[in-house]
Design goal:
homodimer; 434 Repressor (Amino-terminal Domain); 12 helices; about 15% strand; elongated; DNA-binding
DNA sequence: TTGTATGCGTTATCAG
DNA sequence: CTGATAACGCATACAA
């Protein structure tokens, strides 16, 4: 493995100059810079993380702490985050908030002590703790909030627009000619449920249609069984909807089952759309039209923000509030209503 | 942060002695060893990974390369592996085999060059490549095979026993009194499909029941739609099974839907069991009895093997062939047959 | 604009 | 059994 010394020799300069070039510092003649770059390429040189880290005390690790390792959300986020880290030449160190492991702050403190990370990603529900934010801020640790319920003033955050996504999903249904669209809502405790519901209502009202009432909007609480009951109630009513928008794919699957039980075909008798794009959504039949949370892009944004922050020596860079565009995945569970 | 020097001072010894104690080396008087341990505890000392790495050239990173980032299997494995790494004080670096990125060996080579990992986990389908194994072996890189189709002679591997799991799952059905049990098999291209099917047949035959024929075993190829057709065929036949064992949870979900379409209730009219324990299995209703692949334990075993291997200075340690016990998750999709 | 010299916290050599 | 000291590869204070 070539070292900085080899590069310096090859380029006919001192190691300090090579160092300057590597870190994009000023005070290097342009021709010299090029010569160094050439030498680095020819030797296929890449700096040693270990040495760098030893010298600067800054780790390339990025910490992410979560509280529910079994959730599908977290699992997919991990996946995306790992990929993003890998792409950025950094690596992810994960930690778990234990139910009975003391206060969040204590656990965060212990994690930092143990791993020595100085970049952290805070995911729900921890990202909504102002205590944690305060602590990290005071300690000078760079951090990003992932999908916080409320954006904080001085802190960078990355999220998607649940409300807009729900609105577009509903619009998609309206565009196909549906006039009566049911909504199986999520757990009201989650802010996302609220936003998705609002987006759904907005789309409908903005088309001049009446605001949907209790016959069309039922709480499913992200629970399969409740959603099943909700869908059955809707579909067996007097004036059943021609389409159902479930606030999660799990609940959309429940709508599939309710339709089957009632002898209704999806999508011919009733269209169904979901939210999440869980892995089964594409393999189930008919394949489910749904909203894909842009995990990959959100992860990449988190890493980018953290990188910028730590490369910037001068104090704290301005916080960024990034909203990543989602994607509507149109598949075959949705068609124009009969007649 | 205390360093080795602080510990040495506190214990009244030289740093070399502290180093010896840390690395469990010989030639230290027992009382001295204790004194050092005490000092380390009192100072809450932990060695610097960066320095260690710089000095030894050995990275704490563990590499894992995969080819299908969107698969649920991979996503769950990642998750488990990250956790295991974190627990072991190491970290995971992931890489992706690109479809058109050159041969596997070239890509593996590039990954190693770039990340400098010297511990690698090979997952399906790469774990079955003897070329890759040979390459890593010659290069002196420690590696473990994850769920290989065939265990290799000189290489450690970690897997679960698909056949045994399928056999137990089927036995569970038999124990409840089922005599006619259908099987929706997976893609014959996967060795796991074959093993699961064999386990199913074994259980049935060993009870003195006739070996199931083509009316009871249908290929679903891990495809929802095919599985749906298969389940409908079985359940609408002359002598329908009272229980269906699907080789994946996705396909079990298809069986649910087929039952619903035919006006059959799960589990009262037909029991359904699956394989994988995907996240929806517990939330769907009735919740699905299934086989849980022991991702966490398998991941932990991989890391353990790698750790042992790299701490062992003397040549190459003996390869281990670990089979991790699986778990049958009994939920509510399965009951005794009617009458 | 460029170079020299020192130290980050370990491990390892070799001499007691 | 123990210890002084030299690396490992990089960044930087300081000198030129």
């Amino acid at each position: 493995m070539p070292t900085i010394i080899d590069v310096a020799k090859k380029a006919g300069v001192s190691i300090k100059t090579v160092s300057r070039v590597m870190n994009n510092q000023t005070n290097v003649k342009e021709t010299t810079r090029e010569r160094v770059h050439l030498a680095m390429e020819q030797l296929d040189y890449s700096p040693s993380d270990a040495a760098r880290q030893l010298r600067t005390g800054k780790s390339l690790a990025i910490g992410m702490l979560y509280s529910d390792p079994s959730s599908g959300y977290q699992s997919r986020l991990n996946h995306a985050m790992m990929q993003a880290c890998s792409d950025a030449g950094r690596y992810l160190v994960v930690g778990l908030f234990e139910e009975h492991g003391g206060s969040w702050q204590q656990q965060l403190e212990a994690f930092i002590e143990r791993t020595k990370v100085n970049n952290i990603i805070l995911v729900p529900p921890m990202c909504d703790s102002s205590i944690l934010q305060e602590y990290l801020f005071n300690r000078g640790i760079q951090f990003v909030l992932m999908s916080p319920s409320h954006t904080a003033p001085k802190v960078s955050s990355v999220s998607m627009d649940d409300q807009m996504a729900a609105r577009e999903m509903t619009q998609h249904l309206l565009d196909q000619g549906h006039k009566r669209i049911g909504h199986i809502a999520g757990d009201p405790a989650h802010i996302a449920s609220f936003l998705r519901r609002r987006g759904y209502e907005e789309a409908i009202v903005s088309m001049g249609l009446p605001r949907p009432g209790n016959d069309l909007v039922i709480d499913g609480q992200f629970d399969f069984r409740r959603a099943l009951a909700a869908a059955e109630t809707m579909l067996s009513g007097d004036n059943p909807p021609t389409a159902i928008f479930a606030a999660s794919d799990d609940m959309a699957a429940a709508a599939y089952m309710a339709a089957g039980r009632l002898g209704l075909a999806v999508p011919d008798d009733v269209s169904v759309v979901g939210f999440d794009n869980i892995s089964i959504a594409g393999t189930i039949w008919p394949s489910l039209t749904t909203v894909a949370q842009p995990f990959d892009d959100m992860a990449a944004e988190c890493i980018r923000i953290l990188r910028n922050a730590s490369s910037d020596d001068s104090s704290r860079p301005a916080p960024e509030l990034v909203v990543v565009p989602h994607k509507i995945i149109v598949r075959s569970s949705c068609t124009a209503p009969a007649n």
